[in-house]
Amino acid sequence: MSPSPPRVRRAACLAAAIGGVRLHGVASATNIESACWTSGSTGTNSSYYVEMSPSPPVSAVLLASLPR
Fold this sequence. Notes:
Blueprint lengths: L5 H19 L4 H14 L3 H7 L3 H9 L4
Helix pairs in contact: 1-2, 1-4, 2-3
C-alpha cells in the first residue's frame, strides 16, 4: 500500500497546474489532467510531469512555485 494514494497526488498536481493556467492561460486543462494522472499512477516524481507539460510557461510556474 503506497503512502500517498494516486488520488491525492492527482489532486495536488491538478491544484498546482491550475495555478499555472490561471496565471498564464496557455495550457489545456485536459492535457494537464492527463499528464498528472499518468505521473501519479506510474509513481514517478513531479519532474516527469514538468517534462510532459504541453506549455513551457506552465512548467516554469510550477518550478518557481515550489517551496524553498
